[in-house]
């Protein structure tokens, strides 16, 4: 497979200077303050997942603007839970994936965690199913999600998604069976980028996370990604700008409000990143940018000969061991 980015030694030396957009902190403080007035309205209904070791609940809560956001809550089956409250994990989905079917994402519940699988609004029709719409419109955009609402941070798609993510953390932290001080966030690709955002923003909403596990994260170092011969979703930026030739500064200023390599400067929880050096979707230099800027204690798992599949089951095993140690 071709390498589209720097060599591994060059990646370890890559330290981009990513300017923060004016008013970055004020933008997120205002956003979270506005959304804090919206009641969570949590609904949990048990569903039959066909499994004997995991109990699953159909979850709905109020996300950005009170919009209903769906997910699954998986718990170890009642006889397996033990006496104390459970540590928890909120999982975010890859690009255009949804929560899937009740039996799809049960690894973390089998490992003993309360596991909330959150839909990404408006997605879930690419590689797995979702149930959450996005009722908010946007201005002109190229097909996909990255340029929806690109004209202003207030209108951008990922503003709504990141608020949903913060509220998902709050939902799990509040659950009666969960130890709110031991809730982690994770995800692959887009899910990794959302996890970075949640790790940075949730503490500002009074919902601190205990650990962050972003795998081959998307939504980082946007300008670098747009300048490389990447596949979608980053290629959406170039297609949009090939038509809107006069909006280059506007586009990258808006995207900077949602950049995981900037978000991570506000995060303090321990983090375990992963990166694939042959990645043609989320170039490794963009992941290294996010890793370098992350303010909390951090580790990076490097998969030198993998594309966007990254570490796969190897990384999941490493996550399980790492998280058990961090939350011990």
TrEMBL record:
<dbReference type="InterPro" id="IPR039069">
    <property type="entry name" value="CE7"/>
</dbReference>
<dbReference type="InterPro" id="IPR029058">
    <property type="entry name" value="AB_hydrolase_fold"/>
</dbReference>
<dbReference type="Pfam" id="PF05448">
    <property type="entry name" value="AXE1"/>
</dbReference>
<dbReference type="InterPro" id="IPR008391">
    <property type="entry name" value="AXE1_dom"/>
</dbReference>
<protein>
    <submittedName>
        <fullName>Acetylxylan esterase</fullName>
    </submittedName>
</protein>
<feature type="domain" description="Acetyl xylan esterase">
    <location>
        <begin position="1"/>
        <end position="325"/>
    </location>
</feature>
